[in-house]
């Protein structure tokens, strides 16, 4: 009887102690005035002093769907103009606020309307611009008008 060939076993290198991340280009600056990069402190001030509905985009530079969502948010900014303000917060640079708000998946959008008594809406994952715009118009703008 012939001996079965033995598989070749190669030693594995230990895993890196720090997380490995791919570099994906995410533009922090936008050509639209209603898209603003903020940190945790600025985020709180923006929420308290808001004069229009907010879309808060929690993203990371290494997140592929976040890059795609950034393009969708620019489309929303172009279509809606000053009717909405879009805030972008990098979760790697602001880990405390991400933990506090329980941001587990990226990208995460939080929709904050003008009615302080109405809870904010939250989504995870990539949404098309049309859906984002419908959420703002249906739940944030119309909802605020019907409660007045």
Automatic annotation (TrEMBL):
Pfam families to which the protein is assigned, alphabetical: Thioredoxin (PF00085)
Keyword check for Transit peptide: yes
GO molecular-function terms, A-Z: protein-disulfide reductase activity
GO biological process: cell redox homeostasis
Keyword check for rRNA processing: no
Record GO cellular component, one term: chloroplast
Start and end residues of each Thioredoxin domain: 17-146
Keywords of this entry: Chloroplast, Disulfide bond, Electron transport, Oxidoreductase, Plastid, Redox-active center, Transit peptide, Transport
Main localization (coarse): plastid
Location relative to the cell: Plastid, Chloroplast
Record-linked SUPFAM superfamilies: Thioredoxin-like
Organism domain of life: Eukaryota
PROSITE patterns, per the entry: THIOREDOXIN_1, THIOREDOXIN_2
Family of the protein in this entry: Belongs to the thioredoxin family. Plant CITRX-type subfamily.
The protein, known as: Thioredoxin
């Amino acid at each position: 009887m012939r001996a079965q060939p033995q598989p070749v076993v190669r030693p594995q290198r230990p895993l890196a102690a720090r997380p490995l991340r791919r570099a994906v280009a995410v533009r922090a600056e936008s050509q639209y005035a209603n898209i603003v990069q903020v940190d945790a402190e600025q985020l709180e001030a923006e929420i308290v002093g808001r004069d229009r509905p907010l879309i808060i985009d929690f993203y990371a530079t290494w997140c592929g769907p976040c890059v795609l969502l950034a393009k969708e948010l620019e489309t929303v900014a172009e279509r809606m103009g000053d009717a909405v303000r879009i805030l972008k917060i990098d979760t790697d640079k602001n880990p405390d606020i991400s933990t506090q708000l329980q941001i587990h998946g990226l990208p995460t959008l939080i929709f904050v309307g003008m009615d302080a008594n109405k809870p904010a809406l939250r989504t995870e994952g990539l949404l098309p611009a049309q859906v984002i715009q419908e959420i703002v118009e249906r739940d944030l703008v119309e909802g605020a008008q019907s409660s007045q």
